[in-house]
Amino acid sequence: CVYLPDGSASLAPTRKGQSIKDMLASLCEKRGFPLKDVIIYLQGMEKQPLSLDQDCSVLRDQQVSLELRVAFMLENTFSGRTNAIVAKSNKTLQDALQAVMQKHQLKPQEVSVSMVGSDEPLSLSSPVYRLANKTIHLDKTKGKDQTIIPRGSGSFVSTQTGAMIAALEARSSVHTDRTRTQHRPTGFLDMLTRAQCCRVDDQRGLLTKEQLEIPSFLQLPSDQA
Description:
It is found in: Cytoplasm. GO terms for molecular function: GTPase activator activity. By secondary structure, this protein is α/β, with parallel strands linked by helices. It has a domain at 2-140: Ubiquitin-like (UB roll) (Roll). Helices cover 33% and strands 18% of the residues. The protein has three helices and seven strands, in the order ββαβββαββα. The longest helix has 52 residues, at 153-204. Residues 144-159 and 199-204 have low confidence and may be disordered.
C-alpha cells in the first residue's frame, strides 16, 4: 500500500525483478507526479529513503509513503529577487518559507503569500505539494498598524496617571511652602532693622540748624560780638 502526498492511498503490485521506479511509473503518471522528484520510504522510517533502483519485492506486504521534492519559484518583495524553493511534499507552506522569513526577521502574521497574477492569499498551513512548478509572491501584510492594549488596562493606566499627578502636586506644594519659609526670615529682619533705626532716631532726636541754641555761658558779650 502506497500513501500519497495528498493523503490518499493506492495499492501497487510488486513483481520480482521489477524496480521500485518501474512499479511506481504508472501510479505517478496517473497522479501527475514526476518520477525524478519522488521520494519513497517505509512507514516509520522517514529518515531512510529507499533507492528507486531497488527490487520492488522488498516492499511486498509493506506500507510505504511516497513524497515529492516540490520545487516552486518565490517572488520575494523584501529582497527584490525571485528564487527557487525546494521542500518535501509533507511540509506546509510556512515550513517551506521558514528560512526566508527568519532571514528578513518576519513573523507569519506579517506576511502575505499569493499566486502570481492573483490577489487571493494562500494559507501558510496549506500543503506545499500543490505549489509544484508554480510561482508565488511574498509580500508584507496589508493593513494599518494597531497598538493592542490588554483588556482592563485602561483603568489601571488611569489610576497610575492620577497617582502621578497627585504626587507632583504634593511635591509642588511642599516646594512652595519651603520657598515661603526661606524668604520669610529675610523680610522679617528687614522690618526689625527699620523699626530699630526709627527708635534710635526718635531717642536721639534729629535737630535742624534752626533748632540749635548756644548755652549762655558759651555766648560772647554783645560788645565783643
